[in-house]
Amino acid sequence: MALNYLELPAGPEPPTIVNAVIEIPSGSSNKYEYDKTLNVFKLDRTLFSPVHYPGAYGFIPQTHAEDDDPLDILVLLDGPTFPGTLVEVRPVGVLEMRDEKGLDHKILGVPVSDPRKAEIMGLQDVPRHTLKEVDYFFHIYKDLEGKFADTYGWLDRMESYRIIEECMKRYESRAQS
User: Fold this and answer.
1) Quick one: CA torsion of 15, 21, 26, 32, rounded to 10 degrees?
2) Is 11 helix (H, G, I), strand (E, B) or coil?
3) Domain 5-176 adopts which CATH fold?
4) Cα-flanking dihedrals φ and ψ of residue 4, to 5°?
5) CA-to-CA distance for 92 and 90, rounded, in angstroms?
6) Which pLDDT score is estimated for 177?
7) CA 104, CA 73: separation in Å to the nearest integer?
8) DSSP 51-110
9) d(C-alpha 135, C-alpha 175), whole Å
10) Cα–Cα distance between 24 and 56 in angstroms, integer?
11) CB of 55 within 8 A of CB of 92?
């Protein structure tokens, strides 16, 4: 039987350490998505804009965000990954965003196992330019598709914890119904 990535635990110590299932490697302009029916990662589309993902992008399992998908997470990784990689992540903040589906938070985190990221505990520890790049990417990446996306700035680590917990509760309540 195939592994269902959505049923993996949210993390070893959520919300302070979460699991990120990577769908899109850093630097990719291909948008891969986990297909829960087939239990595979499939190419959803190539981005219409000449941009690439500024970090490894995926989701936190056993969460349910307001857009009816698992909660999104962008991981600041220096090395390559591939779809299906599981990374233990320390959330450091969250980008507030809306798209055509509504509210679409993007958790920002760093790998727990990366000694180069050991001192990144919050947004204040992330280079300002990196935060600007991530915000800009999510602000414009759907422009040439004619789809709506807008960003509203960064919220701190404690707010990312609150959102993760809220999405875990939403997942749990839907799983029980």
Assistant:
1) -130
2) coil
3) Inorganic Pyrophosphatase (3.90.80)
4) -100, 105
5) 6
6) 77
7) 11
8) ---SSEEEEETT---TTSSPEEEEE--SS---TT-EEEEEEEEEEEEEETTEE--EEEEE
9) 32
10) 6
11) no
Phi, psi angle pair for 123, to nearest 5°: -60, -30
How does pLDDT run across 76-109, given as a tens digit for each residue? 999 999 999 999 999 999 999 999 989 999 999 9
Token reading at 32 = 């891969």
State how far the Cα of 35 lies from the Cα of 73, in Å rounded to an integer. Answer: 17
Output the pLDDT for position 1. Answer: 56
β-bridge pairing 56-60 and 71-75: antiparallel
pTM of this structure? 0.97
- Average confidence score pLDDT of the chain: 97
Each residue's pLDDT tens digit, 123-174 = 999 999 999 999 999 999 999 999 999 999 999 999 999 999 999 999 999 9
